[in-house]
Design goal:
Largest sheet: 3 strands, antiparallel
Number of helices: 6
Strand order of the largest sheet: 3-5-4
Low-confidence stretches: 1-24, 147-151
Helix content: 40-55%
Number of strands: 5
CATH superfamily of the largest domain: Winged helix-like DNA-binding domain superfamily/Winged helix DNA-binding domain
Mean pLDDT: 75
Structural class: alpha+beta
Strand content: 15-25%
Length: 151
């Protein structure tokens, strides 16, 4: 049930309290923004992140790219949405094959193909035995190579 804001007085935001929409007889009142809702615009305001997402979506629609590569790229992009970095996703190694319903060999081949196409670059310095750091690359935006000492 959605929550809406009902004003109790004239004191401003402190007088607001969430009320179920059905109690107001409609949904025309504005919804109360959560802390997550307020943080999302700040995280997505970075132009690099916006370009990375745009290019990834464009690449996902390319039928010339093999299905297993697109599935892996979509999974990496999903993890980017949860990342604090603008262009690097931290993906768990443990469930990689089972979540994508592919064999470990298929995952390795798809990742090699994405790296070969220049869509993804492993960030070895940030990877460990539990997670793999994968940088989604957009030519002209974040495609410069970083040496290990630059991380």
């Amino acid at each position: 049930m959605p929550l809406v804001v009902r004003e109790r007085g004239t004191g401003g935001d402190d007088d607001r309290d969430p009320v179920p929409a059905r109690e107001l007889g409609g949904t025309s009142a504005p919804l109360r923004a959560s802390a997550v809702d307020r943080a999302v615009p700040a995280a997505w305001a970075d132009p690099l992140r916006q370009w990375v997402v745009r290019m990834t979506l464009q690449r996902l629609s390319d039928q010339a790219i093999a299905d297993r590569e697109r599935r892996l790229l979509a999974w990496i992009a999903y993890h980017l949405t949860m990342s604090a970095d603008t262009d690097t996703a931290l993906v768990p190694r443990r469930f990689l094959a089972s979540e994508l319903r592919m064999t470990a060999a298929d995952i390795e081949a798809a990742l090699d193909a994405l790296v070969g196409r220049g869509f993804v670059r492993p960030e070895h310095a940030r990877s460990d035995e539990h997670q793999l750091a994968l940088r989604l690359v957009v030519q002209g935006m974040n495609d410069e190579r970083r040496e290990p000492w630059e991380h």
